[in-house]
Amino acid sequence: MIAIRPYREADCELLRKIFARAVSETAIRDYTPEQIRIWAAPPLDFAERLIGRPTFVAELDGEIAGFSDVDDCGHIDFLYVNPDFQRRGIATALLTFIIDRARRTGMPLLSSDVSVTARVTFERAGFKVRKPQTVIVNDCAFLNFVMDRSSGF
Predict the structure, then answer these.
(1) Structural domains of the chain, with CATH
(2) d(Cα 16, Cα 20) in Å, to the nearest integer?
(3) H-type helices in the chain, by residue range?
(4) Would you call 141 exposed, middle or buried from its count of C-beta atoms within 10 A (0-12, 13-18, 19+)?
């Protein structure tokens, strides 16, 4: 059974590793080696970003399997799953939790800048592509998608 709980500071290093592995091992099918190298380095402010907004950790059988967040405006920045737990419903459980939370708190819209890799997962959760975009990081271009969905209001 997948359990979702709030982030704790003690989770930070493991989430940093999950982030890097998810990008390096999962997104490799959709992005070039150069893009993966740049993206897989967690942001310097990674710990602050986890603390600075509601962040949630998914556990499966007591092991951390993935994490996500949502800020007060409904923007989801992180949705990453440990590659060892792929295809077990972790990302879907996290998105379902965030959608339900948005409904309970009266947040009318959820949005995210979604990778090519995660696009199908977000679409299955009811998100719609509003536009493709190219983001430049360290002089390297990345395709992703601006996506959103109503929380049900």
Answers:
(1) 2-107 (3.40.630.30)
(2) 6
(3) 12-21, 33-39, 46-51, 90-105, 119-124
(4) exposed
Identity (one letter) of the amino acid at 34?
E
Neighbours of 3 (CB within 10 A): 12
Tens-level pLDDT at each residue, the chain (153 residues): 999 999 999 999 999 999 999 999 999 999 999 999 999 988 889 999 999 999 999 999 999 999 999 999 999 999 999 999 999 999 999 999 999 999 999 999 999 999 999 999 999 999 999 999 999 999 999 999 999 999 875
The DSSP bridge pattern shows strands 75-76 and 109-115 to be parallel
Cα separation of 97 and 149, whole Å? 14
Q: How many CB atoms lie within 10 A of CB 4?
A: 19
